[in-house]
Amino acid sequence: MVIQTILQALSFIFPAYVANASPVVLGGGTPMDGGKNFVDGKRILGDGKTIRGTVLGFLVGSFAGFIQIFVWEQPMIQSLSQKTIGWAHSPWGWEVPVFLSLGALLGDIFASFLKRRIGYKRGMPTPGLDQLDFLVGAILLASIFWFPPFRIIITLLVLTPLLHLGLNMVAYRLGFKSEPY
Ligand code: CTP
Ligand code: MG
Predict the structure, then answer these.
(1) I need a surface site. Which of 9, 34, 140, 170 has the fewest CB within 10 A?
(2) Span 9-55, pLDDT tens digits
(3) 127 — alpha (psi -120 to 50), left (phi > 0) or beta?
(4) Residue 145 C-alpha to ligand 1 middle, in angstroms?
(5) How many helices (H) and strands (E) does the chain have?
């Protein structure tokens, strides 16, 4: 069932979404690269990747995943979950939210590294990369512990860019982002 696959996909990727979105609100301050340039004379990562955003994104994303697993273990939730999502229990352990969050941040940081190398300034939109960098990083690292069914990966590749654009529009309207993408 399509709805069930979408719900499974979203429950899997939830911590990565939180890890990717929370730095927009909680980030700022000292950039991770310390303001330094790479050998090509351009910034290593740029001012959009901060220490606070990365640390808090990792902690908040992991914590969100722990809460999710905890709630999932409650007997009242399990029967409801079985009926809707098709999984009574969390199919993964605590490592998955930790590695999803870490992978999401690393994927996004790696994309910034690439963007600086090709000369794109901080915040310059890079369609495709901006929506999928964190997703690919998250799935890659989390798959060490739990490899999602293929249908979930496909669903996430389609759904994530749409949700990303929608949420960035909301963040822009609320004043957290300077561009609506
Ligand atoms: N952010 C952060 N630390 C991170 C990731 C994001 O502090 N590791 C914050 C920054 O304030 C950043 C905002 O979240 O400006 C939006 O993130 P993103 O779109 O990834 O950064 P950009 O500013 O667009 O920079 P880049 O061009 O490098 O992607
Ligand atoms: Mg950006």
Answers:
(1) 34
(2) 999 999 999 999 999 999 999 999 999 999 999 999 999 999 999 99
(3) beta
(4) 27
(5) 6, 0
